[in-house]
Amino acid sequence: MWAFDIRNWLEHLNPLTWPEVLRQIALSAGFGPHLKKDKVKRSSLPEMDEGKGCEDVITMLRNGSAA
User: Fold this and answer.
1) Could you tell me the superkingdom of the organism this chain comes from (predicted)?
2) Is 22 inside any structural domain?
3) By CB atoms within 10 Å of each CB, which of 2, 7, 51, 56 scores lowest?
């Protein structure tokens, strides 16, 4: 009952839906916009101990002091 039925999907395709289907295929194949990496230089970021930031977030959430 919950399975994906390809026949039902094909019945709902029309000329307006094909561009979106093809766009999704192109995006998954890597033809989407290329995002710039490292907009912020690593040297300008504050040094943090690995895992320490997670502990701070968890503590803030537990205390209810998330601002």
Assistant:
1) Eukaryota
2) yes
3) 2
